[in-house]
Design goal:
Number of helices: 10
Number of strands: 13
Distance between the termini: 48 Å
Strand order of the largest sheet: 2-8-7-6-5
Order of helices and strands: EHHEHEHEEHEEEHHHEEHEEEH
Radius of gyration: 21 Å
Shape: globular
């Protein structure tokens, strides 16, 4: 090995769901929305003058921040924009977890959290979830440098109520508590009403899932003006233009089309619940999902075996070779037709 290689950062990166452009693929492994974005978004794309792209975008994201503030009943100075919720969360880790004390998050959760900790040298401790995969709020009742967890949780799909979130906040008022609400629009209970009471709360959401804009990368944090300003300072220390012109315009158009947003979310929820019922009839245990995916295990067939058999049929779902969940599959909800193909394949495999 060359001497200069010793000076390179060594880290185990986050691994996203497998990508493929194979014809006829049923892609149910990345929690993407099966429906197109709002017609208003499509109109923005059709009508955008390409010549305008020679200019830098609005670094403040004025229109999108205002639209989100109206949508959530907040002030624009409580909205922080980023290049997808992953970007927002990474900035949160930099901005809020600098005390030197270990931050806390569940042991079964979004697998990007420990990656950011390793990259940014943030100490952390994993809090074991209970045997039923529920997060134990009492496990966070100890000194820490911050708390972060998804609600609903991923990959388990389980969501908690407002009282649960406030319980954690009441016991952690001397640090920042981040609630990652990437899947909140599929039946979860948002903790946004608690922002007025707890200034140390940060709520992170995304337009990738419920608004079909994964390809544009739009995420945001909702928090106190003080915390939003801190995020802005960190962001502007290395890249003041995180969202591009198209993302800002399309994001604004999506937020302003509330009817389409609610309609597509409702369709996904209906397909999810029907699919869960049919999987249970095949011998699967399916956790009660508040997301756009299902977390399921079969009573006699191994998850890895089913995963490989589905892949051979050009149907991609997600398998995690990790302790406690290595016999579960995470199945994204697609269109009714895609789920029929999945269920037909499952019957053949079983």
């Amino acid at each position: 090995m060359k001497l200069w290689q010793d000076k390179l950062r060594k880290i185990d990166p986050y691994v996203p769901g497998e990508q493929s452009d194979a014809p006829g693929l049923v892609k149910l492994n990345a929690n993407e929305n099966p429906y197109p974005p709002s017609p208003r978004v499509q109109a923005v794309l059709r009508e955008t003058n390409a010549a305008s792209l020679r200019f830098y975008p609005d670094a403040n994201g004025t229109d999108l921040r205002a639209a989100l503030a109206r949508h959530f009943g907040l002030r624009p100075e409580q909205v922080f924009l980023g290049n997808g919720s992953d970007d927002v969360l990474a900035l949160c880790f930099q901005a809020f977890f600098a005390s030197g004390q270990p931050i806390l998050f569940p042991d079964i959760t979004y697998s990007f959290y420990p990656v950011w900790c390793d990259l940014l040298r943030v100490p952390f401790e994993c809090v074991p979830v209970r045997d039923d995969f529920r997060i134990d709020p009492r496990a966070f009742d100890r000194p820490n440098g911050g708390v972060v967890f998804p609600n609903p949780n991923a990959p388990t799909s389980l969501g908690e109520g407002l009282d649960f979130i406030e319980d954690i906040l009441r016991h952690n008022q001397d640090c920042i508590v981040i609630v990652d609400e990437a899947y909140i629009d599929f039946g979860g209970v948002s903790c946004l009403p608690l922002l007025e009471k707890y200034e140390n709360l940060v709520v992170v959401q995304t337009m990738s899932k419920s608004r079909s804009l994964a390809g544009l990368r739009i995420g945001y944090a909702l928090c106190s003006p003080t915390l939003a300003a801190t995020l802005e300072a960190v962001k502007n220390s290395y890249n003041s233009y995180t969202l591009d012109t198209l993302a800002l315009a399309c994001g604004t158009a999506s937020v302003e089309d509330d009817g389409y947003f609610r309609e597509t979310c409702a369709r996904i929820v209906a397909t999810r619940d029907k699919t869960a019922e049919q999987l249970r009839a095949m011998g699967f245990t399916v956790l009660p999902s508040q997301t756009n995916f299902l977390f399921a295990t079969h009573r006699t067939r191994s998850a890895k075996e089913v995963f490989e058999a589905l892949k051979a049929k050009n149907i991609f779902v997600r398998y995690f070779s990790k302790p406690r969940i290595d016999n579960y599959l995470r199945i994204t909800i697609g269109t009714p037709k895609e789920m029929e193909k999945l269920l037909s394949a499952m019957k053949a495999i079983l």
